[in-house]
Amino acid sequence: MNNLILIRHGMSEWNKAKRFTGWADIDLHEQGKLEAKYAGQLIKDLKIDFQGYFTSKLKRAINSLEIILDVLGVSNIEITKAWQLNERHYGNLTSLNKDEIKKKFGEEQVKKWRRSYSIKPPPIDENNPYKKKINSTILSESLEDTVKRVVPYYEQKIKPLIIKKENVLVVFHGNSCRALLMEILKISKEKITEFEVPTANPLLIKFKNNLEVESCKYLDNKRS
C-alpha cells in the first residue's frame, strides 16, 4: 500500500498577524517552525521511506519541508518545487489585515472571497505594495482557478508515483491543499466552502491498488 502525505506549511508571520498572504513570499513564524518540527516527528514515527518530495515556490512551504526533512534525517535528495502548488493569489487583498477587511466589506463578503469556489478577490493593482514583488500576469484567483493548476500538476507529476506504489510527501498551502483534496476525496463545490486545513498537521492518505482511497487521517488527531 502506498502513502501520500499532504501538509500545509507551518504558521507564517502573516498567518500570525491575520494578513492575507497568497503569493507574497512570507517566511515562517517561530511558532510555525515548531509546528513543522513536530510534524516531522509525527511522520518519522510512521517509519515510511519516501520516493517523492514536492513543495511550492514559496519559502514558508519550502522551509517547512526542510525542517521536516531535518527531523527525518533525510538529506541529498531531489525536491521538486512547483509554482502550481502555490497558495491561491489573493489579489488586492494581499498584505491586508483580515479583521480590518471584515469591518470594511462585511463578514459575508470576506467569507465569499476566502471560502467560495468561484468568486475571486479584487485583482491586485499598482497601488498594492506587493504587486511588483509578486510580478505575475495572474492578478487574482478563486479556488476554482487554483484547482485548474493544482489538479493537472498532481495528475502529471505526483499521481504517476502513486501508481508505481511510491510514497510521496507534499508540503504546500491551505488553498492548494483544499484544491487537491477536492479531487482526491471527491469533495463537492458546496462542501469545500466549509473545509479548513490546519497548519503543519500531516494528512496521511493510503490508496488501494485501484487508486481508491483506503484511508485518510490527520496524524495529530487533536487538530483537524
Key traits:
six-stranded mixed beta sheet; alpha/beta; 224 residues; 38% helix; 6 strands; 8 helices; globular
The H-and-E topology, N to C, reads as: EHHEHEHHHHEHEE
Distance, first to last CA:
24 Å
Helicity range: 25-40%
Strand content: 5-15%
Low-confidence stretches: none
Q: Pairing-aware structural class of the strands and helices? A: alpha/beta
The largest sheet is: 6 strands, mixed
- The tally of helices reads 8
How big is the Rg?
17 Å
Order of strands across the main sheet: 3-2-4-1-5-6
Mean pLDDT: 95
The shape is globular
Beta-strand segment tally:
6
Structure description:
38% of the residues lie in helices and 12% in strands. The chain has eight helices and six strands; from the N terminus they run E-H-H-E-H-E-H-H-H-H-E-H-E-E. It is globular, with a radius of gyration of 17 Å. The mean pLDDT is 95.
Secondary-structure blueprint:
Blueprint lengths: L2 E6 L4 H4 L13 H15 L7 E4 L3 H14 L7 E2 L16 H8 L1 H9 L15 H4 L8 H21 L4 E5 L1 H11 L18 E5 L5 E6 L6
Parallel strand pairs: 1-4, 2-3, 2-4
Antiparallel strand pairs: 1-5, 5-6
Helix pairs in contact: 2-3, 4-5, 7-8
How is this structure best summarized?
The protein is α/β, with parallel strands linked by helices. Helices cover 38% and strands 12% of the residues.
